[in-house]
Write a structure and sequence with these properties.
By secondary structure, the chain is of the alpha/beta class. The chain has a single domain, classed as Nucleic acid-binding proteins (OB fold (Dihydrolipoamide Acetyltransferase, E2P)), CATH 2.40.50.140. It has 3 helices and 6 strands. Strands 2-3-4-6-5 form a 5-stranded mixed barrel. Helix 2 crosses helix 3. The longest helix has 23 residues.
Length: 139
């Protein structure tokens, strides 16, 4: 009986230690992660448009550095968001949610950002949407 109690206490202590480690582990962000790939908005969008499954396997949750032209920009209570033009015939875009408020962006401006790839949503009517989260402005 004492052996079982000691084993249970040791297991609980180990589980609590692991839980504290996970709780205090720094959040993954574009600032802390190493850049996986550097490209432009048109190329990365075309790659996802042509082969979404393979591209998702390759880029999902990876830190991407992308340059492109701001098509639209907005700020709300949740933060700053912008859309990069891809020049695709299906009107597809790269949507970016910034980690911090970024008020210096202007429509038509060429920018370079780093962001974590959150996935691609295909849409037959309006074109696809490649989403990057926790982005930071590089340039």
């Amino acid at each position: 009986m004492k052996k079982a109690l000691v084993i249970i206490i040791i297991l609980l202590a180990g589980a609590m230690t692991y839980g504290l480690y996970l709780w205090n582990k720094p959040a993954k962000s574009a600032v802390s992660e190493e850049v996986f790939a550097t490209t432009d908005a048109t190329s990365i969008y075309q790659e996802f448009y042509n082969n979404p499954e393979e591209s998702a396997k390759k880029y999902l949750n990876k830190n991407l550095q992308i340059n492109g032209i701001v098509e639209s920009f907005s700020q709300d209570s949740t933060g700053s968001k912008c859309v990069m033009a891809t020049g695709s015939t299906d009107m597809g875009v790269v949507s970016i949610s910034f980690l911090e408020n970024t008020s210096t962006l202007q429509v038509g401006q060429n920018i370079v950002i780093r962001g974590l790839c959150a996935g691609y949503l295909a849409d037959d009517l309006l074109g696809g949407n490649l989403q990057l989260n926790q982005a930071v402005l590089v340039q």
